[in-house]
Design brief:
heterodimer; A: 470 residues; alpha/beta; 5-stranded parallel beta sheet; 19 helices; B: 277 residues; Elongation Factor Tu (Ef-tu), domain 3; Rossmann fold; 2 domains; 7-stranded mixed beta sheet; 5-stranded antiparallel beta sheet; 9 helices; globular; binds flavin-adenine dinucleotide; binds iron/sulfur cluster; binds FE2/S2 (inorganic) cluster
Chain lengths: 470, 277
């Protein structure tokens, strides 16, 4: 390993310029404003170009991180994006939503003594630079093979498979159930964290490469998998996500004002309820909002509520701060914007008025007990510690399950006991011939980059299958 | 884009029929299933149960009452105009079985939903009695079609302007008293379905109802359409829209349907002002 020179070590991590918390908590514009080219080059100069880069090991798709950072340092942003594209086709998205502190940045050697290189911010910078300037040449496309491939679901996983296979010369069609492509990137993650224009420009890029995207196509209803085979598709990839909301099964859950995070975020993001009445879909705008859960989904919901005018927005989580699964940046941003955290608190029931509208939630205090199998100390209820919180909007963000719509209507697809599709780990092959799967419908709710990684693996396997067979 | 190939106004222009070009959906759809429609880029996703399908022509037919801004937007589409998005067929099809004597009760635009079910029940050999009703004669829809789809036919109006003077439930009760009915199907406004179920419960006749909660995706992904059936939470878009009416919590359904009353009023007023201007 190379030794850092004292000079480079002194340049400190370039902070990301952001909208002021009190201003941004009232608008849906993106929170971070992006690095300037000068800042990006300074930040890139902090990287010591490790011979055995730990950051790359931490990256689920093994982007050549020191490679692209070196190009930035030299001011060659086009070479930098081309380098990233070798492994990651959605850097503008990943730069914004990957849990870098657990992956590349968490592994960066500088992090031992100082702040790690801002790899995510740099990735985002070059992707945004390229989107604005369009200087890089598109990756080369192989001659048409005449083989038809169907991709079901247009989330990050499906989009990755589609772009990989279209470049290999296959005739790719993406089928999406919603009226807009993008999956969670469009219906789940809010505008202030991931502008939709970025996702749509990625999809437009895919279409310009020759892939077809058909929206309003619910596979399993509008067309079945077997019908796709009959229509001449030789391989099918299932990237349908984990689209089943989890409820708490506590009293009062069907009161008006209690939402699943899926519904709340879909109304606000996909249907643009935050621009009601310009857009026709409404959403309940709570004054006092409680969000149950503490993952990325919960942070997105709690922060959306503030932007829709909430006076108070609380996160209620049954474990402690140490177990919070959301990205560090999201928790930090939420706290800055005024989201209050109630740790070690479990919901007991919701109450409402005579019109069936939510008026409050009863919570129960928890304390950390003995460690469970995973080694985490299990929260246990403190008897008699019930207390009431006023709320007129409650959003349940305690996880998602496998949506059975497609899997149950398809014969020959092996599922595990939770309903997720069973696949071969290396290839993404399912138990049904000619069918692959990956992303959240295989792993359960995970991350954008893991869904993309699974897509790339499956694309390689599909390409191989189309040449030599199952 | 989904083009309207035929359009009719019914019940004095308050109810609209659209026959729409949607070949994939038309090929697949079965009685009891619904579609979700969105008229424009900024529009809402509105679920409507199909009143008819024509797989050869590749069309589906919807019949709806104009009640708010979204349906007003639909109404303003002329023949040749298009819906931006239509998704379907969604929901579980009606379970059709030869049972013997069956009675189908429809109110308001629920008659449109009931029509394909009635026709199918008769086709497979049931003896079908059909009762349809409306507030007044001018609001009745599909009378000739329903007559043709059933073996025995009754019409009621609340104000006595046509047919039996009174509610469908009164005619229903008389039939249940006199005949050995194996199955009832009740589709219409929620209070009507609730009333139908209260009577069929007395006579212990199994009753199917088709529910219309607020929906977003229609694929089981948001839970917005949840209804309580037999004390359990069900998603109407995938577990339904048809349920055993004796188990449905109609009061909760009515309550949840009022979630956006204020917002709907606001939308509607803005739209009316805008279209007048
Ligand atoms: C609110 C929210 C915030 C998140 N934040 C982050 C984050 O910050 N960082 C991160 O890494 N991850 C985050 N995640 C998780 C991440 O978004 C998912 O892990 C990832 O999107 C999974 O990708 P996918 O392609 O498997 O599925 P999805 O993105 O879920 O896409 C699946 C698509 O398939 C479609 N579909 C489903 N069924 C059918 C069918 N039968 N026919 C046709 N189409 C169908 C769906 O409509 C959807 O568009 C977040 C998730 C949510 C909900
Ligand atoms: S980003 Fe960090 S770990 Fe990766 S090469 Fe640079 S200094 Fe080394
Ligand atoms: S409409 Fe979303 S789950 Fe039924």
């Amino acid at each position: 390993m190379s030794t850092p020179t004292s000079k480079t070590e002194k340049t400190s991590r370039q902070p990301m310029p952001e909208q002021e918390p009190h201003i941004r908590a009232k608008n849906f514009d993106e929170v971070p404003l992006g690095l300037t080219p000068e800042m990006a080059m300074i930040e890139a100069s902090r990287c010591i170009q490790c011979k055995k880069p730990a950051c790359v090991e931490g990256c689920p798709v093994n982007v050549d991180i020191p490679g692209f950072i070196n190009h930035i340092k030299e001011g060659n942003f086009t070479a930098a994006i081309t380098k990233i594209w070798e492994k990651n086709s959605l850097p503008a998205v990943c730069g914004r939503v990957c849990p870098q502190e657990l992956q590349c940045e968490g592994n960066c050697v500088l992090g031992k003594k100082d702040a790690p290189v801002a790899i995510g911010n740099l990735e985002r910078f070059v992707a945004d630079y390229e989107r604005k300037n369009k200087k890089a040449s598109l990756p080369p496309k192989a001659a048409p093979t005449g083989k038809k491939v169907a991709v079901v679901g247009s989330g990050p996983s499906g989009l990755t498979v589609a772009s990989d296979l279209v470049l290999k010369g296959h005739d790719v069609t993406v089928f999406e159930a919603f009226h807009k492509p993008g999956g969670v990137l469009v219906y789940g993650i809010p505008e202030f964290r991931l502008p939709k224009e970025i996702v749509f420009s990625e999809v437009a890029g895919l279409e310009s490469l020759g892939a077809k995207v058909i929206v309003n196509a619910v596979i399993g209803r509008t067309i079945s998998l077997d019908e796709l085979f009959e229509e001449g598709y030789e391989a099918i990839y299932l990237g349908v996500g984990a689209g089943l909301p989890t409820f708490l099964n506590i009293p009062g859950e069907n009161l008006i004002g209690v939402f699943s995070a899926n519904e709340y975020l879909t109304r606000s993001n996909l249907m643009k309820a935050y621009r009601f009445p310009e857009y026709d879909t409404p959403v309940i705008k709570g004054k006092n909002v409680i969000t149950l859960g503490a993952g990325n989904v919960a942070m997105d919901a709690a922060r959306t509520a503030l932007r829709l005018g909430a006076q108070s927005s609380k996160i209620v989580y049954r474990r402690s701060r140490d177990e919070v699964p959301a990205r560090g940046a999201e928790v930090h941003h939420a706290e800055q914007e005024g989201v209050e955290f109630y740790f070690l608190t479990s919901p007991v029931k919701f109450s409402g008025d005579k019109n069936g509208r939510l008026t409050g939630m009863t919570g129960l205090k928890m304390e950390l007990g003995e460690p469970d199998q995973s080694g985490r100390r299990r929260p246990v209820a403190v008897t008699g510690s019930e207390f009431d919180l006023d709320c007129d909007l409650a959003i349940i963000a305690v996880g998602a399950g496998a949506n059975p719509l497609l899997t149950r209507s398809t014969k020959g697809l092996a599922l595990n006991k939770w309903g997720y599709i069973v696949t071969d780990e290396k290839t993404g092959k399912t138990s049904k011939k000619g069918v692959w799967a990956g992303g959240d419908i295989v792993t359960g709710s995970a991350t954008v980059i893991l869904a993309m990684g699974a897509g790339r693996q499956a694309a390689d396997s599909i390409n191989n299958y189309l040449a030599v067979g199952w | 884009m989904f083009k309207i190939v035929h359009r009719e106004e019914m019940a004095g222009g308050t109810v609209i029929l659209n026959e729409i070009d949607a070949p994939l959906i038309a090929k697949k759809a079965q009685p009891g299933q619904f579609v979700i429609l969105k008229a424009t880029e900024t529009g809402e996703r509105i679920p409507l149960t199909m009143a008819d399908t024509n797989p050869d022509k590749g069309t589906i037919t919807i019949i709806y009452m104009v009640v708010g801004k979204s349906t007003a937007l639909f109404r303003d589409l002329k023949t040749g105009d298009s819906f931006m998005d239509i998704i379907g067929p969604l929901g579980a099809p009606t379970h059709l079985e030869k049972m013997g004597k069956v009675v189908c009760v429809g109110g308001g635009t629920g008659v449109a939903v009931l029509h394909p079910i009635t026709r199918a029940l008769k086709q497979i050999g049931n003896d079908v009695t059909c009762i349809i009703g409306a507030r007044t004669k001018d609001l009745l829809i599909l009378e000739t079609q329903m007559k043709a789809a059933s073996n025995h036919f009754h019409v009621c109006t609340d104000d006595g302007s046509y047919g039996h003077h009174g509610f469908v439930t009164q005619v229903l009760e008389n039939i249940l008293k006199e005949q050995d009915i194996k199955l009832a199907v009740g589709i219409g406004p929620v209070p009507m379905m609730k009333a139908v179920c209260n009577i069929t419960k007395k006579y212990n006749v199994k009753t199917l109802v088709s529910l219309n909660p607020i929906m977003i995706d229609g694929t089981g992904m948001c839970g917005g359409c949840r209804v309580s059936v037999g004390g359990k939470t069900k998603f109407a878009c995938v577990d339904g829209p048809e349920f055993d009416g004796h188990d449905v919590d109609f009061d909760e359904l009515m309550m949840r349907l009022r979630a956006y009353t204020e917002e709907e009023k606001m939308s509607n007023t803005t739209y009316c002002q805008a279209t007048k201007a």
